[in-house]
Amino acid sequence: MTLAAAGPAQAQDEARVEAAKAFGEGEKAFARKDYALAARRFEEAYRLAPHPNATWNEARALKHAGERARAANAYAKYLRDAAPDAHDRSDATRELDDLAKQLVLVHLVTPGFDVVLLDDQRVEAASIYVDPGRHAVEGRAGEQVVRAEAKGDPGTTVEVTLTAPPPPAPRPRPRPRPRPRPRPRPRPRPRSRSLSHPLLPLRLLPAGPPPSSGSAPASPPSPPPPPSGPASTPSPSAAAPSIPTRPPRTTTRAATRCAAPTPS
User: What is the spatial order of strands in the sheet that 115-118 belongs to?
Assistant: First the structure.
């Protein structure tokens, strides 16, 4: 925690050192009557370490440099930031009153804008002093830009109101596509209980009723009738080889030889 807190504190100390250096350079430039350089150094000192004294000296340098509008805005800023009992408050009020008679005070009414520009310069305050003449006012709200013009005579006050356009209508969101419903998986059909187990041998049973005990065995089934169509010639390889048969011998000739000759 101590090391983490030491970082910002050290950065602030370094900023104060740089601010003191810039403030000293501004005093030297003011003494040399280089008021433009002195105003830049006082402005840099305020940026590094904001303090009303830097703004007071910047306003004096700008007035001597002939920058009436910038000097008036610096005096007005000093009166906003300085304490009520500040030593230079009365002098700053008098100087601002004298400059206001030569300038135009523009009140900006710009609700809803992120950035407001006056003559291409960003404006932080709601009121700003400008030289007499025409001035361009621009308000930016995101990508939308609104422009107006401020014009007035010396010692007058002009109010410029910028109306922010309505925000663009939101784009319609695309409708989500319906998700396809998952198809139900087909349920497996239950197997019949009459089927045999795949690992056991299958035994065929006779189609007829089982023989009763003590009765004669059933006759074999009759062969199927021959097909009605033309008979097919069996292939030679399928037919069984025929065995030649020898005709039986007759005893007629032998009997004739054994018979006695008849008398003539």
Answer: 121-122, 115-118, 133-141, 144-152
d(CA 74, CA 96): 9
Is residue 191 a contact partner of residue 175, using CB atoms and an 8 Å limit?
Answer: no
DSSP assigned state of 110: -
Q: Rounded to two decimals, what is the model's pTM?
A: 0.60
Neighbours of 105 (CB within 10 A): 17
* Helices (H), ranges, the chain: 2-31, 35-48, 52-64, 68-81, 89-100, 252-258
Question: Distance of CA 189 to CAs 70, 182, 185, Å?
Answer: 94, 21, 12
Q: Write out pLDDT tens, residues 66-123.
A: 999 999 999 999 999 999 999 999 999 999 999 999 999 999 999 989 899 999 999 9
Contact 24, 49 (CB under 8 A): no
Nearest Cα neighbor of 137 from 173, 166, 109, 112 is 109
List, for residues 208-245, the tens digit of each pLDDT value. Answer: 565 555 555 555 555 555 555 555 554 544 444 555 55
Q: What is the CA radius of gyration of the chain?
A: 62
The gap from C-alpha 254 to its chain's centroid, in whole angstroms, comes to 125
Cβ pair 41, 31 in contact under 8 A: no
CB count within 10 Å of CB 22 equals 20
